[in-house]
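Lecture notes, unit on protein representations.

Consider one protein chain, 171 amino acids long.
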Amino acid sequence: LLATPICGEPLRPAGLAGAGLGLAGTVLVVGGGAARFSDLSALAGYACAVGAALCWSSFSNLLKARPLATPALPAGAAAGAVAGALWTALAGEPWPTGRALASALYLGVLPMGAATVLWELGIRRGRVSVAGALSYLTPLLSTLGVCLLLGRPLTAGAALGGALILAGAAL
């Protein structure tokens, strides 16, 4: 939706409907068919998720509208490391062990690093609105991965959510 004011991409009715279907499907997949909006303890987490979505969508659209001369990954990694160190120091949390640091480095370099590089390439070479619609596939694919790897059944809510996500991405 931010691609219209930031990048000048047209807002088509089908695109708006697709975004609505993708969002509804994501709520069903993530919430298992019953997002707990009445649970006040979860509201802070939902607010953080909305804030993260706004940050990521702003980054994606601004990357397309005002491309960087160099990839954003190194700066983002450095900012994340500094923010993590500050949080640990200010919150009085214990410093991570060598194994925890190695795990964080692995997760940051391989899956997150690869995903960020691929996302940035997709944004630079394609339409932001299409990439945004395709990003709704993330919770569906991760849920299917959990089902396959851990042998868990796919719930009816997740299956319905997956169908909504696929329909929204097709629009």
